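Figure 2 data, in text form.
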Amino acid sequence: MSEYLFPPPPPAALPVLGQDVRFPVNRIFCVGRNYAAHAAEMGAEVDREAPFYFLKSGHAVRQSGATLPYPPGTRDLHHEVELVVAIGAPAFRIAPAQAMAAVWGYGTGLDMTRRDLQGRAKDKRHPWDLGKNFEGAAVFSALTPARDFAPAAQRIRLEVNGTLRQDAPICDMVWSIPELVADLSQYYHLAPGDLIMTGTPAGVGAVAEGDRLAGRVEGLAEVELTIGAAE
């Protein structure tokens, strides 16, 4: 049997609320501009013809309670709190009416963004990878099984050092969860372990070393993050 040249990294995995098991993370799909007010604050419009996506890698995953060193290459690190959908069954070329059968559960996430690098990429019509996909850029709460949570009009909020910055009902999403799952399944063979970060409401902003972030979707576990000193 062939051996690896060097030890492969351990798989990313998230805790499950109230259970002694972990959810292995496969791919992380992120939905752009899925709240109209956030799109407006970023100087953009919602594309109402179809949702659009970017991806984060497994190396970006951190669990709630982590300390994230202020990332290199940026002077404008932003928070974005999001409802996270965890896929638990294969789905390929399905209709929205079938989509919820593929959903295993839900969580709260932080899409951390090097906003200055993202803005530079937008100006040059380049991909967003440097702004969005870096170590610690995807922070997640423990996951809640779908049987214990039904998405409706729950509020999604984020506080920085106890001050409320983001607050909206998740029903403000432009594209619903069934629509997102079904649309992604037209382009990917969705599989157990995939996560969908469903977009952020208005109120995003910069954070600094020493800041403490707390995000929550009503009915789900909270996600907490401390911004540490730059390395």
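Caption note: The mean pLDDT is 96.
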